[in-house]
Amino acid sequence: MPDNLTNELDCDDRTDCFVPKSRREFLHDSFLRVAGALIAIGVSRSTAFAMPLDFVEARSRAGSARSYGIPATDGAQIDRQNQVILVRWEGAVYAFNLSCPHQNTALKWDDRDHQFQCPKHHSKYRPDGAFIEGRATRGMDRFAITRDANGITVDLDTLYENDKNAAAWNGAVVRIA
């Protein structure tokens, strides 16, 4: 390789060089440029990088009741401490047990397919908890849920299984505008 080409690619001592020193630096700079371009064209951070899964904690607790804010957008929120999944989906809020009804494995949210999935036996559920397919034999277990002036209240002592009490399971929902 000619000496002048080697010197042009060597950027260690030059301040006007645009070749990144490392892959990490390249990725960092690329991310900042894309984010800057999105902001420049008016795409907000919440729109460009929205994640429908979030981790929350109960705002308050009284006996078996746990209070939460109403989720602002469609998606899932997980309260690990209380084993609760809150879901806002198509004008409704649901509260589910975090465990798969098949063998109590913690469910995962699949953002790509907008559904819950059991990582152990691959049972799948719609965002409203309805069973789609897999080894499970019923939908996700729903907690009793009510709306009050401060948000949503979930009763951890009242859990409905759709195959044993379909009416209560179907009623364990809060409609929102």
Quaternary form:
single chain
Indicate the CATH topology of the largest domain: Rieske Iron-sulfur Protein
Helix content: 10-25%
Radius of gyration: 24 Å
State the fourth-level CATH superfamily of the largest domain. Rieske [2Fe-2S] iron-sulphur domain
Strand content: 25-35%
Count of discrete domains = 2
The CATH architecture of the largest domain can be given as 3-layer Sandwich
Can you lay out the helices and strands and say which pair or pack?
Elements: H1 3-9, H2 23-40, H3 45-48, E1 53-55, E2 60-62, E3 65-68, E4 75-79, E5 84-89, E6 92-97, E7 108-110, E8 115-117, E9 124-125, E10 131-133, E11 142-148, E12 151-160, H4 166-171, E13 174-175
Parallel strand pairs: 1-4
Antiparallel strand pairs: 2-3, 3-12, 4-5, 5-6, 6-13, 7-8, 8-9, 9-10, 11-12
Feature tags:
177 residues; alpha+beta; Rieske Iron-sulfur Protein; five-stranded mixed sheet; four-stranded antiparallel sheet; 32% strand; disordered N terminus
Describe this structure in words.
The protein is an alpha+beta fold. The protein has 2 domains: 3-48, no CATH class; 53-175, Rieske [2Fe-2S] iron-sulphur domain (Rieske Iron-sulfur Protein, 3-layer Sandwich). 20% of the residues lie in helices and 32% in strands. The chain contains 4 helices and 13 strands. A 5-stranded mixed β-sheet has the order 1-4-5-6-13, with no helix packed on it. Strands 2-3-12-11 form a 4-stranded antiparallel β-sheet. A 4-stranded antiparallel β-sheet has the order 7-8-9-10, with no helix packed on it. The longest helix is centred in the N-terminal third of the chain and has 18 residues, at 23-40. Mean pLDDT is 80; it is low at 3-9 and 34-51.
